[in-house]
Amino acid sequence: MGETMSKTRLEAFSDGVIAVAITLLVIDLHVPNPAGSGTLAHRLGAEWPSYVAYAVSFLTIGIIWINHHAMLRRITGVDHSILVLNVLLLMCIVVLPFTTSLLAQYLDASHGQHLAAFVYGSSFLLMSLVFFAMQRHLLNNRAHLLEENIDEHVRRSILRRNAIGLAPYTLATAAALLSPYVTLAICGLIAIFYALPATTTD
Question: I need a labelling partner for 140 at 20 to 30 A (CA). Which of 37, 150, 184, 196 fits?
Fold first, then answer.
């Protein structure tokens, strides 16, 4: 079944990468230049796409961190396949500051807003797909690494809750062709949904 190793280094590395990604989101929030035209309130209000995109992405990354911690808490060690899937997941998370900035810049622009929203939605969808794949791999293919005996009902419940986000993220990505605002709204609603307490640990 392959060599296994302690999960401590994986957790420490993942926490560090996620912390950097979630911190980078704030870089896109700019202080208005005092020499600019208009009142400070007006110029702050004009930056609302950055604030909303920041809030949605921050909450989403935070929830992924919580669920990632819960996922790793169930296992006693990791093997090569888990390390690879974890690297892919972190790669998807780290790109979110870029896609968030892209959407914030183009959300109310006269061109490019649909593509920016499509890229934003796609980044969330890809991240959720990789997370689901890793979760499924651990629960179904690495039972020998589970810290406790998780029965089939609980496994299905965990995977079902994880899978719920795939359809709306697909919808959010497709909706970018119609309205970038709809894409942002759907991603925000998904973040709120996963922020709610669950009957099982995700």
Answer: 196
* pLDDT tens sequence across 164-183: 889 999 999 999 999 999 99
Q: Which residue has the higher pLDDT, 201 or 113?
A: 113
The encoded tokens of residue 172 equal 């959010």
Q: Are 42 and 121 in contact (CB under 8 A)?
A: no
Q: State phi, psi for 142 to the nearest 5 degrees.
A: -130, 45
User: What's the 3-state SS for the chain?
Assistant: CCCCECCHHHHHHHHHHHHHHHHHHHHHCCCCCCCCCCCHHHHHHCCHHHHHHHHHHHHHHHHHHHHHHHHHHCECCECHHHHHHHHHHHHHHHCHHHHHHHHHHHCCCCCCHHHHHHHHHHHHHHHHHHHHHHHHHHHHHCHHHECCCCCHHHHHHHHHHHHHCHHHHHHHHHHCCCCHHHHHHHHHHHHHHHHCCCCCCC
* Single pTM value for the model: 0.87
